[in-house]
Amino acid sequence: MNNRPNPDYQAILAEQGMPTTETQVRDEFNDIVRDNGIMTNTSRMSPIWKLITAIVTAPVMWLKDVLVNTVMRNLFLATSSGQFVDLFAWAVNLSRKEASAAAGFIRFVKSDAAREVTVPAGTVIQTERINGTIYRVLTVADVIIAPGVTSALIAVTADLVGSGHNLAPGYFRILPVAVDGIASAENEEDWLSSPGADVEEDSDLIDRVKNQYNLVGQYHIDAVYRGMIAGIAGLTTDRIFFEHDAPRGPGTANVYLLLDSGIASQPFITTVNDYVMTQGNHGHGDDVLCIAMPETLHDVRIVVHFFAGLNLTDEQIATLLSNVNNLVRCAFRENTDYDVQKTWPHSRFSMSRLGEELHAAYPEIESLEFNLGDIISGLDVPRLRTLILVPA
Q: Who has greater pLDDT, 280 or 191?
């Protein structure tokens, strides 16, 4: 999805005649010494000559590394990193987005509808362990669920900043400390009111800076809307898709938003639309509507064969299947805990690559049988309707 150039700066220097290896530096120095008659004893066995050669070679190599990896790489936006990207951003009136905590609502269900139940502030709802991590959200205030009301949506916020808490429905369902009168708690569809976000990565900030160069005239083209929407926590320029052709008449366009994990909830979409349209950030006569990315739902069934010689216990198999389950769900954008290919709009989701990633992550797996081939997407993102794992 990224065609950003990555030139070989060392090769460029070499093409211009600069010595870039220790051997080349020594040969260049030897030529200078010989041409000027500075020393006569240049034998490789001479301690003095070895010392002088090292004194000359080491600083040249250090300067070459600094020139290649610091100066030249950070002269250009495409290959810059760290504080240098921040400087490019400052030049176009942007700044790196800070990390933020996810916020949303969890449904608490009472064990007895006739009772009045108080859910205290700080009540923890957590996930099962996902790739070694347990995610937690906490209620933000005391909430009383009145008699006769069976359940209530209660505001929560993540205990830590970051995008890891942007999980799909059903992940938050464990009460580590029971609440008197509460039978269960779980995050439902549209539970996220504000997605969490990590500190903006260099690559995402570079994309926003690049996009900013299109805004000089402030004419309200795609780049303007992409720039303003990507400024909101939890969104990046490569996850914003436009539909033109006046879907609601002349001067209209749809903007589809895709989160890296979880689903862009209606409360979050409403917040983005309010920023773009209600707060007057749209162009004259423009009608821009932000919408969650359409989904296609898929039933995935995987038969998992483990190596028989390992003699895995039932508990070990259950743990492995749980890990496989979480990795596959990560690929379908339900969590962010694995470095795997993910579903994208306008792309091919490769089941064979998913199989390779499962084999690499869990060497206990001998073979995998998928019921589906590759998934081809248009202006939509493939999601899981069901995921069934069958141990063989």
A: 191
Which helix (H) or strand (E) segment holds residue 225: the answer is: helix 222-230
**Which of these, 132, 136, 130, lies nearest to 329 by C-alpha position?**
130
Alpha helix positions (H), 42-201:
47-66, 83-91
Q: How many CB atoms lie within 10 A of CB 147?
A: 12
pLDDT at 218 over 60: no
C-alpha distances in Å from residue 10, one per residue of 66, 70, 160: 11, 12, 41
Tell me, what's the pLDDT at 219?
46
The lowest-confidence range among 61-65, 282-286, 329-333 is 282-286
d(CA 205, CA 227): 11
Q: What is the structure's pLDDT at 230?
A: 83
Amino acid sitting at position 111: S
How many C-beta atoms lie closer than 10 Å to residue 46's C-beta? Answer: 13
The tokens 């495409």 sit on which residue?
78
Q: Residue 291 and residue 275: Cα distance in Å, rounded?
A: 13
User: In sequence order, what DSSP letters do the residues of 252-268 get, joined into one string?
Assistant: EEEEEE--SSS---HHH
Q: In the sheet that 381-391 helps form, which strands lie side by side, from edge to edge?
A: 365-370, 295-306, 381-391
387 CB-near residues (< 8 Å, 6+ apart)? 300, 301, 302, 325, 328, 329
Per-residue pLDDT, 320: 95
Instruction: Give this prediction's pTM.
Output: 0.74
Distances from the Cα of 388 to the Cα of 23, 130, 188, 190, 211, angstroms: 59, 18, 21, 24, 42
Angle at 331 (CA atoms; ends 79, 312), nearest 5 degrees: 120
Q: Are 38 and 53 in contact (CB under 8 A)?
A: no
- Strands 103-110 and 192-194 turn out to be antiparallel
The two three-digit tokens of residue 284, written as one number: 């004259």
- How far apart CA 157 and CA 106 sit, in angstroms, is 10
Alpha-carbon distances, residue 134 vs 58, 128, 337, 385 (angstroms)? 48, 6, 11, 24
Query: Taking the alpha carbons of 275, 276, 277, 281 in that order, is the dihedral positive or negative?
Result: positive
Report pLDDT for 60. Answer: 83
- Alpha-carbon span 121 to 155, nearest angstrom: 10
